[in-house]
């Protein structure tokens, strides 16, 4: 009896110590003053006109850093509720929406989509020797979510760039390979958006509003902003055709035309304040203050590697210098892809853990979710080309600062 009681006490002690260890893994961020001082020093050498960086940990602590002006040529200090073009950060919402439909049993991850989306599955494959052939493998939602469907962008594949669209009667450029055999970043998520609209019988904007953004209080995340919010849109710019020239502002800060066709792969406007709510919700396993947008098991599935034997080697990756998508430094030979974004399978020197999911938008906005450390972070700038070191290096330095107390 004494032995049994002793073992029971020992077990309780181990449980308490384990709980304490888990809690100690999520330590406090440096102070706001420390972060601001270090970031101000970094920004002295930057040509960026405006920047916002935000981090939140699972203890609910939040730090933010703002720099510069929202409108470049005016004295308008940038704020976390200013509105940015988040481009491919739209993909995260689209992927979550699709997984909601999976949870409801309205679509399967590995279901053949040929009967639902023949306008997509009948698009032929353009081979390396420039022949058009019919695909043999079924296209599934999993293929679309992981960019293994064969669909690319004209700026991620050289043959697609040169493809003659005369008498081309399909809704998209040709695919480049059989589904499930290779990785190519492209329009797969646009097709997911169309799939969501077809299944839900609502526009993508309506679906997002009803099932994601309204629930999370993301009132500034829309394809079409009301006139009352357009003044909050920040300036954006580019660095010339080759991406190395002086940063100059692009005209038409405020969009003139209303979006009528919604792209699942890009096109949303959002604020850092809004998008952080989404990242925190995923860090908290799909839970937000008044409910849940996804089941815990679905969120766990989202963080699993999906590519198996598919190589993500980008040595021969095609990109347009002044636009997109040079993945150097972002995608590594060991990287993998999840159902919602890139998986960094290596820990960083400053302490971000392996298994972190990350992605961004063409105008240099980026996010990551480090579940092992209990941290989400994002950065917001507005300039071309994508993956520009003026933003990515600053994001690395910001991350190094916030992880100082988390190693």
In words, what does this structure look like?
By secondary structure, this protein is of the alpha+beta class. It has a single domain (28-252, 262-402), classed as Beta-lactamase (3-Layer(aba) Sandwich), CATH 3.40.710. 31% of the residues lie in helices and 13% in strands. The protein has twelve helices and 15 strands. The protein has helices spanning 2-24, 32-43, 90-103, 118-121, 141-145, 158-162, 188-200, 204-216, 227-230, 272-283, 296-302, 389-402, and strands at residues 50-57, 62-68, 84-85, 125-126, 132-133, 237-238, 248-249, 269-270, 287-288, 291-292, 336-337, 342-344, 356-361, 365-370, 375-380. The strands form five sheets. It has a seven-stranded antiparallel sheet, sandwiched between helices. A hairpin with a 3-residue loop joins strand 13 (356-361) and strand 14 (365-370). Helix 2 (32-43) packs antiparallel against helix 12.
Record field, number of beta strands? 15
CATH architecture label name: 3-Layer(aba) Sandwich
Secondary-structure-based class equals alpha+beta
Order of helices and strands: HHEEEHHEEHHHHHEEEHEEHEEEEEH
Strand content range: 5-15%
Report strand order across the widest sheet. Answer: 2-1-15-14-13-12-11
Helix content: 25-40%
The major sheet is characterized as: 7 strands, antiparallel
CATH class: Alpha Beta
User: What is the average of the pLDDT values?
Assistant: 93
CATH third-level topology: Beta-lactamase
End-to-end CA span: 43 Å
Instruction: Tell me the overall shape.
Output: globular
The CATH homology group name = DD-peptidase/beta-lactamase superfamily
Q: Low-confidence runs (pLDDT<50, min 5 residues)?
A: 7-24
Radius of gyration: 22 Å
Task: Note the total helix count.
Answer: 12
